[in-house]
């Protein structure tokens, strides 16, 4: 299939599977989204556009990708996913999962029987998130609990408030006959596309508008040759520039296929997270060392955003209200910047120079985030304050890590978001901590210092006065939790539901 060109920039063909069949598209502009290709070019209109910014999940589709020899399934938001990024993958929409004879897939049947659809606009997205959950859990012999369904559907919003029947449908999957995909066949077709794409990438590497290097050296060389190209990973930020700001990019370099940057390396003193590691995988690695981060990770964003976005992209974007940076600053994380000239590393907070500005040279890329492992006497908490508990942007985010020995604070590390033009370290408050006994009186002193350290702005999410007050309140919560007090935050509660 050939599309009418809308840009003078040449691109390589996009080849992916849909309903098990090969789709090949040419002349697709670098900035065109997957949703646009599905709806406008392939007339696959079951996939809906709701918000156009990855918040509501109406546009969710499922991607199948070969990972370590197995087929990996993940739901993503097609409205902010660039079409070229799915080259060599399998794509499922709500139109693709029923049998050829019209028999509904189990997730569709469950939604029907449980009356899970009201106005119906969000339904295709819910169905696809359920489909990904089904492939990742039901097909592996794991029962669907209500808690699991709530977590897997965290990126889908229903404006008719119809969540209960949808959660009922998720649990009904446990009682329906299992329907398995022929994963071996899908993997074979994906491998065939991959083999054919090697030649295409090599022949068109230097002239394509959308480039997907597969090695770190290749990435660094292309960045050196094209310093003005837009670097992308999961495009959960860049996708918004396309859909909301109507920006177009003639040259894009996608880092998500770079093998070295897709790894997490474990060292005695730290872990190194590659810039192309998805948020979901990166947070799982952090949770392995610090299980208390599980609830915070689930609140970072909806699952489709965490499936697509990367930790490196979140850090490089540098939003002052991004959630990962206050945590990483509190953990003492460093970033590694690389170019053909070599590499350099620095504490994360030194990476930023201004609002969404950083120290990256024109030929550099952010390659790794190095996170120290926990010490025996550290006490860590990360707090996110937002108007909506799930799938919302922070008004303020505070990460605190104290090392306490014999009741005396020996070291403090505090990262803050939402109070300045960049994510910041609370340097003055940190300096006031060491040598003090960890007591209520000390906490009262530190609250005053922390509140005075920043002058946050007022905006649509919170006023300056609110942010200042909450900073101290969160420090007091931190103190109470260090004394064993429980049931003082929303994470301590769970919604009552039937199994």
Brief summary of the model shown:
The chain has 499 residues and is α+β, with helices and mostly antiparallel strands.
Question: How would you explain this protein's 3D organization?
Answer:
- α15 (440-453) packs antiparallel against α16.
- This protein has three domains: 14-172, Ubiquitin-like (UB roll), CATH 3.10.20.30; 212-372, Uridine Diphospho-n-acetylenolpyruvylglucosamine Reductase, domain 3; 378-490, Enolase-like, domain 1, CATH 3.30.390.
- Residues 1-8 have low confidence and may be disordered.
- With 499 residues, it is an alpha+beta fold.
- It has a five-stranded mixed beta sheet with strand order 2-1-5-3-4.
- Helix content is 32%, strand content 20%.
- A hairpin with a 2-residue loop joins β17 (396-405) and β18 (408-417).
């Amino acid at each position: 299939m050939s599309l009418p060109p809308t840009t003078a920039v040449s691109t390589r063909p996009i080849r992916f599977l849909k309903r098990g069949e090969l789709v090949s598209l040419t002349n697709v502009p670098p900035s065109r989204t997957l949703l646009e290709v599905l709806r406008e070019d392939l007339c696959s209109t079951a996939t809906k556009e709701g918000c156009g910014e990855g918040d509501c999940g109406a546009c969710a589709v499922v991607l199948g990708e070969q990972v370590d020899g197995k087929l990996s399934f993940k739901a993503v938001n097609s409205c902010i996913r660039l079409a070229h990024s799915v080259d060599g993958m399998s794509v499922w929409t709500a139109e693709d999962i029923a049998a050829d004879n019209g028999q509904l897939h189990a997730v569709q049947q469950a939604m029907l029987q449980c009356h899970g659809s009201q106005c119906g606009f969000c339904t295709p997205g819910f169905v696809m998130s359920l489909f990904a959950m089904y492939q990742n859990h039901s097909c592996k012999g794991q029962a669907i609990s209500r808690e699991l369904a709530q977590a897997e559907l965290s990126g889908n919003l229903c404006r008719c408030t119809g969540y209960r029947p949808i959660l009922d449908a998720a649990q009904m999957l446990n009682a329906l006959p299992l329907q398995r995909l022929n994963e071996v066949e899908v993997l074979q077709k994906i491998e065939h596309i991959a083999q054919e794409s090697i030649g295409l990438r090599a022949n068109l590497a230097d002239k394509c508008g959308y480039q997907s290097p597969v090695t770190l050296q290749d990435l660094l060389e292309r960045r050196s040759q094209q310093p003005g190209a837009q670097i992308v990973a999961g495009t959960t930020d860049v996708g918004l520039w396309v859909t909301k700001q109507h920006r177009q990019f003639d040259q894009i370099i996608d880092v998500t296929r770079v093998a070295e940057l897709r790894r997490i390396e474990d060292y005695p003193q730290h872990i190194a997270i590659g810039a192309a590691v998805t948020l979901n995988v990166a947070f799982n690695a952090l949770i392995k060392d610090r299980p208390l981060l599980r609830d915070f990770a689930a609140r970072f964003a909806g699952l489709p955003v965490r499936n697509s976005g990367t930790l490196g992209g979140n850090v490089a974007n540098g939003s002052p209200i991004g959630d990962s940076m206050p945590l990483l600053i509190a953990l003492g994380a460093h970033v590694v910047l690389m170019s053909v000239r070599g590499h350099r590393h620095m504490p994360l907070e030194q990476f930023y120079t201004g609002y969404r500005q950083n120290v990256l040279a024109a030929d550099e890329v952010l390659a790794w985030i190095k996170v120290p492992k926990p010490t025996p006497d550290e006490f860590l908490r990360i707090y996110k304050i937002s108007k909506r508990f799930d799938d919302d942007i922070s008004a303020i985010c505070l990460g605190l890590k104290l090392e306490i020995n014999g009741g005396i604070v020996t070291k403090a590390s505090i990262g803050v978001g939402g109070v300045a033009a960049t994510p910041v370290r609370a340097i003055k408050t940190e300096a006031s901590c060491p040598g003090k006994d960890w007591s209520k009186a000390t906490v009262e002193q530190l609250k005053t210092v922390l509140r005075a350290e920043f002058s946050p702005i007022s905006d649509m999410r919170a006023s300056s006065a609110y942010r200042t007050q909450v900073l101290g309140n969160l420090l007091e919560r931190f103190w109470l939790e260090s004394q064993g007090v429980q049931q003082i935050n929303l994470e301590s509660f769970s919604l009552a539901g039937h199994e």
